[in-house]
## 1
Amino acid sequence: MDNFNFYSPTEFVFGKDRENEVGKYVKKFGGSRVLVHLGSGSAVRSGLLDKVKKSLESENIFYTELGGVKPNPRDTLVYEGIEICRRDNIDFILSVGGGSCIDSAKAIAIGACYEGDFWDFYTDKAEIRACLPVGTVLTIAAAGSEGSGASVITQENTRLKRDAGSDLMRPKFSILNPLLTCTLPAYQTACGAADIMAHVFERYFTNTPEVEITDRLCEAVLLTMIKETPRAIAEPDNYDARANIMWAGTVAHNDIIGVGRSQDWNSHAIEHELSGMYDVAHGAGLAVIMPAWMEFVMHHNVMKFAQMAVRVFGCEMNFERPELTAKEGIRAFRSFLHSIGLPVNLKELGAKEEDIPALVKNQGLGKGKTGGFVNLSSADITEIYHIAAKAEA
Amino acid sequence: MDNFNFYSPTEFVFGKDRENEVGKYVKKFGGSRVLVHLGSGSAVRSGLLDKVKKSLESENIFYTELGGVKPNPRDTLVYEGIEICRRDNIDFILSVGGGSCIDSAKAIAIGACYEGDFWDFYTDKAEIRACLPVGTVLTIAAAGSEGSGASVITQENTRLKRDAGSDLMRPKFSILNPLLTCTLPAYQTACGAADIMAHVFERYFTNTPEVEITDRLCEAVLLTMIKETPRAIAEPDNYDARANIMWAGTVAHNDIIGVGRSQDWNSHAIEHELSGMYDVAHGAGLAVIMPAWMEFVMHHNVMKFAQMAVRVFGCEMNFERPELTAKEGIRAFRSFLHSIGLPVNLKELGAKEEDIPALVKNQGLGKGKTGGFVNLSSADITEIYHIAAKAEA
């Protein structure tokens, strides 16, 4: 096991009706002038925003609103948020929405404390040294941003999708009410599930040997998702299914199951180009890319994929030919994703095979990240996209 | 799933040689005048104390020492610590030792901020409202106190063992270097493992239905302990085995795997009377009590015990007679404890069957806790002690 620091000081406030306490938690963590950051409008329609406002008002907290966060959140709205923070002397950012909304809130929170262009943090041109406190009321289990120090933003004019990270950006509190996720369409529920599972797999496939505790914790989250996701889709109002998925989503990404081991994140990087270019749901992109990545890299450590197949997907171990078990596990994963209504190839996703060279070229414009489970060249990434193009459930 | 709050703001600093950074972390969390709290002397002999002092000195931090913490830490030393805090204007308590040392440090930390008798917190006569910051350098994986808000203290003159809890007592940081645990005798390693597994089982056996995510996370920790403990005993210097056990021990008790579900804790309460009366190791007491408790309560939810048997101990499910699978799981647990060198009955523990009435009577003097998985009467507790008296591996 590698040396590590694990610091997750977010207070998670979980359960029915907890959003009515949001004012109390904003106050607890020092907020008096709040920017309420919102997504597409569902929080308005569902009455959630009214509850949040009422709770803030009951604590005599000033607030101003900024709505309009889209999936794959844009830099343009972040600039707008930063302006508002300066204009209104905002001292707390409250995200009311999903992962995109939280990521956008985090970007505003670091941007408001920085003289330069916040995009510097997403292109490794500046180091995050200060951040306004952020709180969240989560409306979808997916990104894990409610418990992480990470944020992903897309630059509107270039369509480049880049990430930044710092423990300073970890939310002070996150309110997780599974009931708020019961109104999600099945497709969004499935996309969220794929994102959660991908967060685990990015950690699971490691080159660090002898990490039984985090291996087992990763498998625990995956097994839960395999049980609960089809249930949440078949019975959208099933509170228990929603609750299990919601806590799984947080545990999957606050890093308690990923510490002390090298992580991969190449599937995320490859997918980011897809959702950046086509504006498709991140989880849907991952459903197409991740199994393709697995097929491409499995020979790097066949036994690890066999372990996944046996422990997570309940495959029989083939002791004579472990690679067949490994392949069966990947097939089972793709088949699971298909069964919950997700695309399994580029066409189903709405992406075009002829764009692969452009996707790979954008990749090259990234932070030059190498490493992970298998170090990928441009040719490797091209091959992974082609596997993804040809895949069938 | 039940509503819950989860707040674990401890910074975990994990890995080889991390104790050399202790001064930096004391400073980070506001300490300038430190009480270094120590156990029996092994930290002195191993050179650990010297490293800690050197690190504190390099940050120009004042410190004073208080050693002598014994297993089942006593109130008498806590009173001494509180006096020193007042005399030397201590603003930070640093525990260098195992769970007993941390529990004692926490008691001093709350006692120093309280006008009355600190024992009030352990008898529910006062509520914890303030606490000096506590940091730890952990030397044994067992109690989980390095990541918890709990403390257990034994009153010297009455031998009563009582607990207190508050998020305020959670350590600011905990330094976990698995190498420091390599010198532990096999018996202490085994006792620690039993304690860790018991922390999981106290959460696992719940009356809250539909808690797949925390069930699976609990099983992940148990599976890890079953794999790694025999390895750490056979090869004391095996860093990976020690590292997996150490992170498992923290995850087992910081409550991330126990939130949103009713918990039991009756085995701990029953055991506390044993280690209070005979001054035996807590983990050894748990090894005797927990399987006996399981046998007594298994009919309350046979399928949950069958789940444990199948998922944790790899038993075959008997679909016609699930209770046989349940029993086989309990047998497998006791047999595992025996295989790592722990006692399985009162006699092996050094306890006397004729003391059972006195043990049960002390129980009655507790906080009057009822509930848990099965609500136990005095007659039930008597029966559990008798099962423990008769048990064989």
## 2
Amino acid sequence: MQQPITLDTRYIDGFVRAHEIAALQPQVDAAHTMLHQKTGPGHDFLGWLTLPRDYDKEECLRIKTVAKRIQADTDLFIVIGIGGSYLGARAVTEFLHSPNYNLLCKDTPRVVFAGNSISAQALNEILALCEGRRVSVNVISKSGTTTEPAIAFRALRDHLVKTVGAEETRRRIYVTTDRVKGTLKGLADREGYETFAVPDDIGGRFSVLTAVGLLPIAVAGCDIDGLMAGAAAAMESFDNPDIHFNDCYRYACARNILLRRGRAVELMVSYEPCWAMMSEWWKQLFGESEGKDGKGLYPASAIFSTDLHSLGQFIQDGSRILFETAVLIGDTGDTFIIGNDPEDIDGLNFLAGKPLSYVNNKAFEGTVLAHADGGTPSLVIRVPRRDAWHLGYLLYFFEKACAISGYILGVNPFDQPGVEDYKRNMFALLGKPGYEAERAALEKRLND
Amino acid sequence: MQQPITLDTRYIDGFVRAHEIAALQPQVDAAHTMLHQKTGPGHDFLGWLTLPRDYDKEECLRIKTVAKRIQADTDLFIVIGIGGSYLGARAVTEFLHSPNYNLLCKDTPRVVFAGNSISAQALNEILALCEGRRVSVNVISKSGTTTEPAIAFRALRDHLVKTVGAEETRRRIYVTTDRVKGTLKGLADREGYETFAVPDDIGGRFSVLTAVGLLPIAVAGCDIDGLMAGAAAAMESFDNPDIHFNDCYRYACARNILLRRGRAVELMVSYEPCWAMMSEWWKQLFGESEGKDGKGLYPASAIFSTDLHSLGQFIQDGSRILFETAVLIGDTGDTFIIGNDPEDIDGLNFLAGKPLSYVNNKAFEGTVLAHADGGTPSLVIRVPRRDAWHLGYLLYFFEKACAISGYILGVNPFDQPGVEDYKRNMFALLGKPGYEAERAALEKRLND
């Protein structure tokens, strides 16, 4: 069967022997069983595995209806969330539309993301963008108590009440939170906000295809049915544990082998700037799933050819600690034909009449060979087309690859205990009630 | 003497012993001598070292005059360049203004960057942004033959001629190129474009304080005199080779020690989103200067607290291959006071009345201690204020630290031979005249 998305491993050939991938089949089998029989660590967080089939169809319809309403009555849609409640929606929107979406959009609202830092400048800028615009807010938080989004929500709710009044504010706040419990759910019920669910069995970094991601994505005018259909196709494609027929699992194997061979950093590369935020989504997915117990590949990213003129020297000839994973988009939907210059000042007339995508592809081919020659292997993921269906397929590809890869690595891919450590310190230093004991000890360390 | 910018090494204390830094003094002395007596490798590219004193004052005046003219007659200023002809101007503008500069700017033109990728989408979007706007173009290329900017320049010159005619096009193109030679210089002379110089003795990644960076920075309304004055102050501050009195050199030492101790990745961290592109500038500076001969730290970056919710787990508890370099901005010029919520739904009323910057600082303190406890050391660079003067100081700090660090590492920090490898392959695959011999062999490798 022809797969919509393929993994090309030929550019790791000089670095990994063919039998090495085959040798991981038993580990893959074990990981596959743990995942599908829900017997592995983190098995309470496997809702994403069958989500493309089992998702709440009624909620999805409501998301589309609400998105239409927002498109009609809103100029600026502010999405409040951090981590998994931020990256998925932004990555999908920027990939399917553009990193310049807010400069270019015409028939859909501007979509901006708030509550993902503690920067006064960032928050003040969001408030400045509100001036003179019809604003709606989507606050996304399972508990409602995460510091960054909670502060932003305070500010933006205030802004709405002051500018449109309490009644209209209620119609302009959309809440994505726990289905039944939590302070945000309580508030939403009391105020009558339209609410959507963060499922219990899906962690933040796996939540892009739930209401967490889908509402902002739909507001930006992207095709959420296409996303879900692509993910459903991937769910079927990657059901076979035999790595000969499962590129998703082969990707999980190859990256583990490269790590065991001393490649500490996986550099995700794309030749299209619209992929940049997808790399950020992927970094959270893999970094948070695998970076634990002193283990894991460090996920980094670059856009080529842009960064061939900055990081290219290192990749070609620096410390041999990297491998690349290139995501190649076939048809981006854009065409640009290189013009002829009668004077040929730049000496590029040999390219006149050629589409820019042709040059971009030759840049990839030239780069992947040069990097192999320099000692940097590449995995290549080929995506035939930039559209919602293929992106949904790809999202599921990475999610499942991450789960299998984490089990092969020997970690629980579904927890993130280390994320709490800085928060505990921060709360103590901020004087949060209940953290008094730690405070003095921390302050002493800071002032020594 | 009180230094405007300080390096705080206390959070590497558990990882590096005090005598280790002192032990590098002889290597620092040697590097300092090589640099200042111009006896080291790459000594033909040391123009940046005394640039803050020796820069062309007349050209700088002209830049300010021209920038005022552009501000008056231009809505969209398109900067064509790649690598060092792109990152510096964008990084400075986004740091001093905002990553959202183009959404927020009112009295100055939008500034967009073209010719830094081979993406048809990216180029088409620039052309779409031109519609209905008064456009000027600054093309930055030493030779005029670099593929990416040359293609973009063809497209935008065409666009200008078609929309405003040949005569007005000549007034709307600004060229930054070699002072005397090269095809772009020839074209500029024939057409009568206003031109600025790329100095012979300053490589791309060290060129932000030449016309390469200064013209776009001035058009965006930033204070280029402040930048130069800050750099001049840094030039004086970091003239003493004694590492007890030279934080710039101590930074160079500390990162070399951490590398030798097995930390392969330096993660530049900031708590302000406006720093994001400065990290990209820093990545090119250090990655391209040190990533050679199989050596060098891999430069990566993150924005906190944003990425504490994505990469935080890895940094806290994943493979112990990282150290952090945090750039802390004291006064960003923005204030936001956290409001009170009578219901205290999110439990954050203990923060009511506090400025957000206070919380951000406690997030830093909590994080740096948590990461040290988890096994990730941090260097901390403290910048009292976000303004042009301090940024100029900081740019010079990093440039000189990079030179010293590269000499300590044992490389030529001023060349980039590896950048040519992919280009040679690409030209051969594109059928560029003169590359016929390589083409067949490369195609065979791709198709095997």
## 3
Amino acid sequence: MTTFEFDADTAVVPVDAGAGRWRATITPRFNVGPNPNGGYILATMLRPLFETIGKPDPLTVSAHFLRPTTVGEADIDVDVFRTGRRHAHAEVRLVQETERVRAIAAFGDLAAAEGRTLVRGAPPELPPPDECIVRRPVIDIGQPAIMDRFETRFAPSTPWILGEPSIDTAVTGWIRFADGRPADVASLPLFADAFPPAVFALGRAGWVPTIELTVHVRARPAPGWLRARFETRFLVDGYLEEDGELWDEDGRLVAESRQLAMLLQP
Amino acid sequence: MTTFEFDADTAVVPVDAGAGRWRATITPRFNVGPNPNGGYILATMLRPLFETIGKPDPLTVSAHFLRPTTVGEADIDVDVFRTGRRHAHAEVRLVQETERVRAIAAFGDLAAAEGRTLVRGAPPELPPPDECIVRRPVIDIGQPAIMDRFETRFAPSTPWILGEPSIDTAVTGWIRFADGRPADVASLPLFADAFPPAVFALGRAGWVPTIELTVHVRARPAPGWLRARFETRFLVDGYLEEDGELWDEDGRLVAESRQLAMLLQP
């Protein structure tokens, strides 16, 4: 039986079930420079919930990144503080000596959802993956390890990926796991943070620390490529939001994301 | 000295400073039907932080609404769990017999922010307030008390405000406090939830319970009207997101919001 990278790298073991304490080993395989990617950390923090919260889908997850995380062991403290008929809410803290990330999540069951549907948005228009840009972004902080975890194809309309600065701080493209693992609701919070930041269009590629990241999982993805669109519309005095959409091969929106981050001067 | 409605209705008193416990009296003046508006509750929960957290601006605030809140006394439990140089993070719980709302917030100082600025969005185009629609929305659950707290002028391009259903689930307009209180960073989380839900365009106006609401405060507003734009792009099996933008009279984006909510069948 194959163990995919994502499942191995986000694995958690209970160390004190009564106290809600789990342990993870943060690997360097999702690093951006010396630090693990925030989406990877968040996906790892959610792993215990899939086993304990009693609902299958992370409908909305918000994480506050307090301090950089590091490669190595981490305690994950879980508190399911509200269980209702439709939704269950939990808080999760990632501790490496001190608390580094705090998240709150609401889980539900998308398969049991009933109600009206009206879709006014559409997936980004993209050429087929083999007509998109394979070349990796030119950035100042070395080749991030995280990029080896995915196959990523950037739209030809995003020339900054090839190193030509632009004020069009947006990026669209295809993405899937490099080892063939299908996307699912557990990995969507990682996919929501797996593209190079759209603000890199400006050509000042460096560390863009996330302050807060919220991901809404809207549907369970079909197997295959995801279409992604990320955009920063408001960069003000170094603070920026980045909005993301992920769509599956059936043309369904599977996740929306928004983060508040900072563009540190290089 | 005048006490404005917002300041009176969100007032908090410390009851156990060492434990971080405050008390508020939730008034009926921001009700929608029998329950207080979520933005009002969130603004009330943030009030203790302005006195204790040591930073002036709520950069990002996420609230999970666990159970309906009610008019009357509420305990507000505050834990400032991380104080850094730039940002301080806190968790706040609103308790009425049991926990009803949990929020996490990151505060900072927008006046001290330094870095690049690039604004790619623009405020909604609106006729002057006196050429907009004053008439209140036609909704099924009675005239919400919250509407008396604001002066609201809806764009003529949103005919559903007058009772004509539309699949254009968006609304733009002007808003300010009815009693002349200027908007500020403390009241922006309320303004971000103060318009009728954009999904009311569909003509099935009822209760739209918020599961999670996140507000980013991006600038301190100038005095005067706010321009607002709210939109729901994805209503799927009854779950919807609503994205909002608030702009001040100087044409600056002052807040972005996104909530995950449900459209309950009437």
